[in-house]
Amino acid sequence: MSEQQVVFTNDICQALADFTSGIGHDKLFILFDETTRQLCLPVLQPFIDGYEAGHAGRKVTHIGIPATDESKTVESLTLVWSGLSANGATRHSLLINVGGGMVTDLGGFAAATFKRGIHFINVATTLLGAVDAAVGGKTGINLGNLKNEVGAFAPADAVLISTRFFETLDQKNLLSGYAEMLKHGLLSEREALAKLLDYDIQHWENATLLPLLEYSVNVKREVVRQDPFEKGLRKALNLGHTFGHAFETFAMKSHQPVLHGYAVAWGLVCELIMSQQQCGFPSEVLYEIAHYVRDNYGPMQFTCDDYDTLIELMRHDKKNEGDAINFTLMESIGQPSLNHSADKEEIGVVLDIYRDLMGI
Ligand SMILES: NC(=O)c1ccc[n+]([C@@H]2O[C@H](COP(=O)([O-])OP(=O)(O)OC[C@H]3O[C@@H](n4cnc5c(N)ncnc54)[C@H](O)[C@@H]3O)[C@@H](O)[C@H]2O)c1
Ligand SMILES: [Zn+2]
Prior knowledge:
By secondary structure, this protein is an alpha/beta fold. Helices cover 51% and strands 16% of the residues. Residues 33, 35-36, 39-40, 67-69, 72, 99-103, 105, 125-126, 128-129, 132-133, 136, 138, 147-148, 165, 168-169, 173, 176, 260 line the site of nicotinamide-adenine-dinucleotide.
């Protein structure tokens, strides 16, 4: 898989002008959801105007899809394919995805499959998109309740990140992205994690967030560079996600959906508890993370009557092989330990300790 260019910029229009002129193409398409159309497209208008003026009036074709993860469906994908096809896209057309992880996952998959693959650029507009979804080459859609069930590895030609877009993000979406940054901090080193735990993300500023963000994206990029197709090391990025996905699906089925990063934050606490039990992960770091998550994300609500349902959801996780439930654990900060499994009793003990730590 070719390596992606990731660019942090304060001048997103100039960056788009540079990249679109560097990628030979006949027609230019721009994809957004209904929220990024309102909040982010106006920021890109100078680029669009400049592009159309500079290409003898050649128009940039807009394609819109509904917002939120419920729209990461084959129906929205069809809208994108049809939008490309009906407007004369060829194998040499270029697609710009403007949005959070939903748009970059779906748009990336549309680009990877349309005429067997066209070039695309991701403009990440959420913190979660910037730090995780837009980077690393995984694309795809949901199938019914099954998250990311259909997809492809397809790196964007470029990923453009500007904190300017985060100005319109609500606190929940900021915190959702920040959970993946905490995960990257755990996978890197003590000092990086300490900086994240000290930082007040709810009152972020460009000058202080940017270095944390760049560092975090680079943690992911380095892992992906070493193992692009998740044969081994890339599984480290699944830390927090076995419990996390179960919490996410449980919440959705209970008609109280939670944002992905919230489920990951709770999943991190559970998987660090398991790490402490199975791999000797230091208790003091576990408590620090648990308190941070409790104070900022609140607790995921469930009782011991829900354990069987949660374990059943973990059994269906696509990271599993055979009957065992697969967990990425940690020996210490920066030392992941892959391919652990746990039985029902062990998972039950983790959930008991989680409820104690989170005070539910
Ligand atoms: N491909 C990967 O490696 C990877 C990794 C992590 C997550 N994901 C996927 O990413 C998705 C979650 O990402 P997300 O949280 O960015 O979701 P999202 O794209 O649904 O964005 C969340 C909400 O914020 C809105 N939004 C986007 N930009 C905004 C802005 N600048 N200001 C205000 N609102 C804005 C969106 O319209 C949406 O309503 C999931 O589908 C998940 O599966 C993919
Ligand atoms: Zn995640």
